[in-house]
Design brief:
This protein is an alpha+beta fold. 43% of the residues lie in helices and 10% in strands. It is elongated, with a radius of gyration of 40 Å. The model is unreliable at 485-591, 615-622 and 723-754 (pLDDT under 50). One of its GO terms (molecular function) is protein transmembrane transporter activity.
Length: 754
């Protein structure tokens, strides 16, 4: 066999194959993903859309917000079409390559049949050689060479064997490996240009692109919020644990996303020096003279004035401040979500005793309350009916009825059709139809709560220190299901604090008390003086931050009872040890073995269920969370908005958060989530509140109280089953006493008079 050799492509054939493959790999997916497509309007969806002036204006602004959309689509089409034309040209070029001896057939070259005799072969060769000989006028050197090889392959025995074995009368040639690059790349005179191109791409362009991307990415959090903004939120929320709503607006307006130094998209105009002061004069209680930094900076005062003007629905200059309003309001939902996350972190840092100030639940709810206010462009003390199209302060007087005044959207939806039309009698039929379209598509949430202790022997019984799991199920319906339906349960009126009007006790709080330095610890976190510490073996999973709840019926297990129960357990263990050493009947042994088999089988079943639960949970996490649910009617919000919800558990009496707010972003028909917290360590009846808040609509929040009848944990159980995540060596009594419970303290003990 001949040798091997490597060579660059001289003719460009293999290089064209490389270009053809490379271009096809890029062009096919690029055409699928980037080809501009115009979605055909759905007549049914168009009929459901609101045609109020606010929505019509918003559609026009959204279309005009991207003026380069048409030229951009045209440019993309030209690039893709040009790529396909180039691909077709390359395919045609490759198909025209004629490789000598690629399909060598001597009978076809001589024009004879495979069964031809030697005389016929010679006669055909003489006839064609006269025509193709290079000395003749009709000669062709290339074709004559092929003719000679064909004649040799059929007349010479060795040449025929080579052709039959290797497909070539000359025998096997040297194996050649071609590099699909043209030869001019390695030519000496072009080496400087080639090296310069490599250096420009790999030593300059690539490091600059990666470095720029890295520098920009490290400045932002996972939600694309500046890290400096998050630090500013941490500082102010820790400084002011009980923060009123207007203070939250001040903190939001100080976000560095609105500062030209940190965000190049911000536009600063010379006209701001005149328009902003004029706008401030129209807005009361703006606190523009606050000297705190960065609350006193110019960008912060401007953003605060824009937020107040937006909530008061004050028209702005379309060419200047109105454009700033659209940008500022469009950024606010992401910033408010970051505020909620920062407050949640501060709450659990306070539980871990790393900070002293504990943010109150009112501060967290004020942040959540601000989101629907900005989406709807409405203050929280205004009527929620103003979220409907064509409803203004003038025609709100029609909703006031001596028999039953209409204060919420849910109450308005429950009226009969003729009553609704009578209230809105000043509207035309087209305007009334728009009102009913918007009202019918608003959410009506079936809020279901289930409380249990997972992986415990009795899930319905809550024992001291157990991990309580609250399963929240949300079933979304359209508000149209309430239209004139007398069977639907009556909707309770809800105040701005998220508490029903008929059960308002224990709510509220001093929102102006900003100098409270110590975290108030309720009774169930405290330990009685003189009592012995309750020693229980804890694993790393057990170290969950305890939650602050004040019991309705106070009291704690007596130390003497605990000691007496421990003594009884020791007596039982000693007796059982002696009985095991003694002789027992075979029937008793059989009964015990059967019981052991039942217990082992139940444990195996529990393990299998736990593995299935963890697998399902892991799959759900890997799937990711969608942010598409239902569109929101918000003509004053600059962008399209989707319905999102917060659900959490809190204690109204101590004004504290018990679980991190769970942000539900994909509620289309039904969604389920689990909230977990640690039960009190003292027995008694406790009340916790499960809350649901919308980030898009005002007045759509719900809450449900859960009463926990905490029972004393069985003395035989040293730790709850749900804490047994990993095996650990048993510790002696002295070592257990050394590990004091992090949920209790020797300070802040419960008073006997409480």
């Amino acid at each position: 066999m001949g040798g091997q050799k490597f060579q660059y492509d001289e003719s460009g054939g293999t290089f064209f194959y490389f270009l053809l493959s490379f271009l096809a790999l890029i062009l096919i997916p690029a055409t699928y993903y980037y080809w501009p497509r115009k979605s055909k309007p759905d007549p049914e969806e168009e009929s459901k859309e609101c045609r109020c002036p606010g929505c019509v204006k918003k559609k026009i602004l959204l279309k005009s917000a991207d003026p380069w959309r048409g030229p951009k689509h045209l440019f993309i089409k030209v690039i893709i079409i040009g790529g396909w034309l180039t691909l077709g040209l390359l395919a045609y070029k490759v198909s025209q390559f004629d490789y000598e001896m690629a399909n060598f057939d001597p009978f076809e070259i001589l024009g004879i049949s495979p069964s031809a005799s030697q005389a016929e072969i010679k006669r055909a060769y003489r006839k064609l050689s006269v025509i193709l000989h290079p000395d003749k006028e009709t000669g062709n050197e290339k074709e004559f060479m092929k003719l000679s090889k064909a004649y040799q392959a059929l007349t010479d025995e060795e040449a025929r064997r080579n052709w039959e074995k290797y497909g070539n009368p000359d025998g096997p040639g040297a194996m050649s490996f071609g590099i699909a690059l043209p030869s001019w790349i390695v030519e000496k005179e072009n080496s400087i240009w080639v090296l310069g191109l490599y250096a420009l791409v790999f030593m300059v362009a690539l490091p600059v692109v990666v470095g720029t991307w890295w520098y920009r990415s490290i400045r932002f959090s996972g939600d694309q919020v500046l890290l400096d903004t998050s630090q500013m939120y941490y500082y102010f929320f820790h400084k002011t644990p009980n923060m009123p709503l207007k203070r939250v607006i001040m903190i939001l307006s100080a976000s560095l996303e609105f500062d030209r130094k940190h965000n190049s998209e911000i536009i600063e105009r010379q006209s701001d020096n005149e328009e902003v002061p004029q706008l401030i004069k129209k807005l009361p209680n703006l606190s523009e003279k606050n000297k705190e930094r960065p609350l006193c900076f110019g960008y912060s005062i401007k953003a605060r004035a824009i937020l107040h003007a937006h909530l008061s629905r004050i028209p702005l200059n379309p060419s200047t401040l109105e454009q700033d309003r659209r940008y500022v309001i469009g950024k606010c939902p992401y910033l408010i979500q970051e505020q909620v996350n920062c407050l949640n972190q501060l709450v659990f840092l306070a539980y871990a005793r790393r900070i002293q100030r504990l943010p109150s639940i009112e501060t967290i709810e004020n942040c959540m309350k601000l989101s629907p206010m900005l989406v709807q462009g409405l203050w929280d003390f205004k009527s929620p009916l103003l979220q409907l199209p064509y409803i203004n302060d003038e025609n709100l007087k029609y909703f006031v009825n001596k028999k039953r005044p209409i204060k919420s959207i849910q109450e308005f939806a429950q009226l009969k059709a003729e009553d609704r039309r009578n209230i809105l009698r000043n509207l035309t039929n087209e305007e009334f139809d728009d009102v009913m379209k918007v009202l019918g598509t608003m959410p009506y949430i079936d809020f279901q709560v289930k409380c249990e202790v997972i992986d415990d022997e009795n899930p319905t019984e809550v024992t001291a220190g157990a991990i309580v799991t609250v399963t929240v199920t949300l079933i979304r319906h359209n508000m149209s299901m309430l239209f004139g339906d007398a069977t639907v349960p009556e909707v309770h009126s809800v105040t701005e604090n998220g508490i029903e009007a008929d059960s308002k006790e224990g709510a509220g709080g001093d929102a102006d008390n900003e100098n409270e330095a110590a975290v108030k610890r309720p009774a169930w976190l405290k330990q009685k003086k003189g009592g012995s510490k309750k020693t229980t073996k804890k694993t790393s999973k057990q170290k969950v931050v305890n939650n602050i709840i004040k019991p309705k019926s106070e009291g704690s297990p007596a130390v003497e009872k605990t000691k007496s129960k421990e003594e009884k357990i020791k007596v039982k263990e000693d007796f059982s040890d002696e009985s095991e050493a003694s002789d027992v009947d075979t029937n008793e042994n059989m009964d015990r073995s059967s019981e052991d088999d039942v217990k082992s089988s139940s444990v195996e079943d529990d393990d299998q269920e736990w593995e299935k639960f963890q697998l399902h949970k892991r799959e759900k996490v890997l799937e990711g969370r969608s942010k598409v649910s239902h569109g929101v009617h918000c003509p004053l919000f600059p962008n399209d908005k989707q319905e999102h919800w917060w659900t959490y558990i809190c204690d109204r009496k101590s004004h504290t958060l018990l679980t991190a707010p769970y942000h539900i972003t994909d509620l289309i028909d039904k969604e389920e989530c689990q909230l977990k917290f640690t039960a009190p360590i003292w027995t008694g009846v406790y009340t916790v509140t499960v809350c649901l808040r919308s980030d898009s609509y005002i007045g759509f929040h719900q809450q449900k109280d859960i009463k926990l009848d905490i029972k004393e944990a069985p003395a035989e159980i040293t730790e709850h089953p749900q804490w047994e995540f990993e095996d650990s060596e048993e510790e002696g009594p002295a070592e257990d006493e050394a590990h004091e419970s992090e949920y209790t303290t020797d300070e802040d003990l419960p008073d006997e008079d409480d």
